[in-house]
Amino acid sequence: MRLTIIGTGYVGLVTGTCFAEVGHQVVCVDNDTAKIKLLASGGIPIFEPGLEELVKKNVAAGRLSFSTNISEGVQKSEVIFIAVPTPPQPDGSVDSTFIERVARDIAAALTGYRIIVDKSTVPVKTGEKVAETIKRYGPAKVDFDVVSNPEFLREGFAVTDLMKPDRVVIGTRSPRPVEAMKNIYAPFNAPIVVTDINSAELIKHASNSFLALKISYINAVAAICEITGANVQEVAAGMGLDERIGRRFLNAGIGFGGSCFPKDLSAFIKIAEEIGYDFRLLKEVQIINRGQMDRFVKKITDTLWVLKDKKIGVLGLAFKQNTDDVRTSPAIELCQRLQKEGALLRVHDPKAMTKARAILKDVTYVDDMNAVADGCDALVVATEWDEFKKLDLERARKSLSHPIMFDGRNLFDRSEMERRGWVYKSVGR
Ligand code: NAD
C-alpha cells in the first residue's frame, strides 16, 4: 500500500521503515528540513539498533523516501499516519498543537478519500477532534476516516517491537478503514484488536500508566527491602515467576523517565481530572518516582557528606539502555542534582553523549568508560547499559581515591563487589 508518515522521529522513522520493509511504499514527511536533508543524504538522526541498515536497504529498494512536503504526502498515499510530538504542558496536560496543525495541513491537501491514522499518544477523544478539524478546514465533499492506532514500541528495541508487535490496536468509528488497516499490518502476523476510537486512545494511556505503576511498585518494595535487609532482586524474581505478575518492569532503580512514561502518566491524571475522576493511584506513582531519585541522591550525600568539589564519575546518560535518547532522562536529572550540590562530574554513555551535550553542560565527557573513574571520589551507575557490566573494576578501584560505587541500576553483584573491597551501595538490597 502507499503510506505517508507525518513526523519522522523515533516513532515515525521506525514505523515508516518497518512498513517499507514488509513491502509498502512509504514517504516519511517532517517539517524539520535539516532532518529530512540528513535522511535523504543517507544519514540517520537517531540511534536505534538495526535501524540504519533497514533504512538504507529500503531506500535503495525504492520503497522508502523522505520529504518536507505534507501535501505531496497526502496526495500520494491512501493512508496518512500522524506521528508528531504530544509534549506535556506545565500543568501536565497534553499540548495538542502539533496534532492540530497537522490535521489542518492534511485538510488543506485532501482531494479524495483518505484514511488518517493517529499514531501519536493522545488524550481520549482526540480522534474526534481531528475529524472535526479536517471537516472544518477540508473540502466539503471529500470523505475521510480517522483511525487511532497507538504505538507501543520501546526505544532501544523499536525495530523488533515494530516487526513483531504483541498486538496492533485499530480504533475507529466506521467499518470502512478496517480492511485497509488490517492489510497494512497483515505481514506482521500480530493479533489485531479492533475497538472504537476512544477505547484505542485509552489503551495507550492506560498501558503506559500501568507500566509506570509497576516500576513504582517495585521501587516502593525496594524501600522496604532496604529497611528490612531483604534483597529486591530476589523478591522480584520470586514475584515474577507468577504468570499473573511477570518479571518484566520489576527492576528497582532510580525511577522511570524518558519521553513517554512521565508525560503519559501526567496526561492520564489530567484527562481523568478533566472528566471528574481523581486518579489518586497514579498520583502516588509519580510521588514514589520522585522519591526514588531523592533517596538515591541522599545515599550519595550520606556517604560522601559534602559534595562540593568532589569528583564523581557517572556511567550512563540515556534514559535507558540501547538508546541515545536523553529526553527526561533520570541519569541527566541525577547529574544535575549532583552538580547543584557542587560535584564535578566525569560522564560517559555509549550512545547518548552527543545528545546530552546540548542539555548537560560543565561536565567532562569521557569517551572510554574505563577512564570515567580516573581521579574521582566515587562512581555512579545511572543507566542500565549491558556493557557497563564489563567495566574494568580493578582499574576503576585503583583510579578512585576510595573505591565507592553507587549503583542506581543494580548492575553488579553486591557480595562480589564487597569481596573485592568496594563500598557498594545499590537499590533495594
Ligand atoms: P519525536 O520528537 O522523536 O518525533 C516527532 C517528529 O515530528 C519530529 O521529527 C518533528 O520535527 C516532527 N514534526 C513536528 N511537527 C510537525 C509538523 N507539523 N509536520 C511534520 N512533522 C512535524 O517524537 P516521537 O518520540 O517519535 O513521538 C511521537 C509521538 O509518538 C508522541 O505522541 C509520543 O508520545 C508517541 N510515542 C513515542 C514513543 C517513543 O518511544 N518515543 C513510543 C510510543 C509512542
Would you give an account of this structure?
With 429 residues, the protein is α/β, with parallel strands linked by helices. The protein has two domains: 2-195, NAD(P)-binding Rossmann-like Domain (Rossmann fold, 3-Layer(aba) Sandwich); 210-425, NAD(P)-binding Rossmann-like Domain (Rossmann fold, 3-Layer(aba) Sandwich). The protein contains 16 helices and 14 strands. It has helices at 10-21, 33-40, 51-60, 70-76, 97-109, 126-137, 158-163, 178-185, 197-228, 232-240, 261-274, 280-304, 330-340, 353-357, 393-399, 414-419, and strands spanning 2-6, 25-29, 64-67, 79-82, 114-118, 144-148, 168-172, 192-195, 311-315, 344-348, 364-365, 378-381, 404-407, 423-425. The strands form two sheets. An eight-stranded mixed β-sheet has the order 3-2-1-4-5-6-7-8, with helices on both faces. The chain has a six-stranded parallel β-sheet with strand order 11-10-9-12-13-14. Helix 1 links the parallel strand 1 and strand 2. Helix 4 packs across helix 5, helix 5 runs parallel beside helix 6 (126-137) and helix 9 (197-228) packs parallel to helix 12 (280-304). The longest helix has 32 residues, at 197-228. The model has no long low-confidence stretch (mean pLDDT 97). The site of nicotinamide-adenine-dinucleotide has 26 residues, from helix 1 and helix 5.
